[in-house]
Design a protein that fits this description.
Helix content is about 10%, strand content about 35%. It is mostly beta strands. The chain has one domain: Roll (Ubiquitin-like (UB roll)).
């Protein structure tokens, strides 16, 4: 069973320039981020179908999850 993780362009540095990955369902977003070599603390927002989810959300088959990075500046 699979799902899709879509990352904002700020995260492409960690993902070899890609912004979309097919991932296994049944794991939390946090676990999946670690498997993709993304530090969970870099993620500010997890969105599924327009609704905010936590990093502890368990990914379901067919989900398309968008993750947005923390943005700093001043």
């Amino acid at each position: 069973m699979t799902a899709i993780i879509r990352a904002t362009s700020a995260l492409k540095v960690y993902l070899d320039g890609k912004d979309e990955f097919e991932v296994e369902s049944g794991h939390t977003v946090r676990e999946t981020l670690v498997r993709l070599n993304i530090k969970p603390e870099l993620i500010a927002l997890v969105v599924l179908d327009g609704e905010q989810k936590t990093k502890d959300y368990i990914i379901q088959d067919g989900d398309v999850i968008k993750v947005l990075a923390v943005i700093g500046g001043g």
